[in-house]
Amino acid sequence: MLPNSDVAPARASVDRVDRPWFGQTLSILVVEDDVAVAELVRTLLNREPGWGATVVHDAAAAAEVFKHVNVELLVLDVNLPGISGVELLDVLRRDPHWREPPVILMSAAPEQAAIQVTLARKGAIRCLAKPFDVDELVAAVREAAACCVRSAPARSA
Predict the structure, then answer these.
(1) Which residues pair with 106 in a beta bridge?
(2) Which residues of the chain, if any, have pLDDT below 50?
C-alpha cells in the first residue's frame, strides 16, 4: 500500500490495536502522532454506543491496521511524522477499498481555510481545527456515519 521508503522499521507505533468494534456498527481508526490528543479522541469516540476506535501514531502503523481490520471511518491528523496525513489520504484514495469511505481530518495548521479547500477536493468529510470542541468531533463522526458508514468493503485476512 505505502512505498517501502515510507514504511517505518518493524517497530510500528501502534500502542495497541483495540478491537472494541466486533459486533458494533462503526469501526474507526484514529491516526494521530500526539499521544495525549490520540487518547482523548479514542476515549471520546469509544464512549459513543456502537463506535469502536483504535489509535495509531503514524502512516506506517495505519497501513498495518488496514491490512487486518475493516476500517469504516478514518480520523486523520494532517501533520504526521514521515508521510503526512494528506499524503496518506492520497495513497488511500488510490486503493479501490478506500475511494469512498469517510475521512475526517484534524489540523493545528494556521492556514486552516486553505487546508479545508484542498481536503474537500480529496474527499474529506470535514477538517477540524485543533484544538477542537468535543461536540464538533462527535458531530463530524455522526455526519460521516450517517452518509456512508458501510462503504468500505471487507478485506480478506
Answers:
(1) 77, 128
(2) 1-22, 149-157
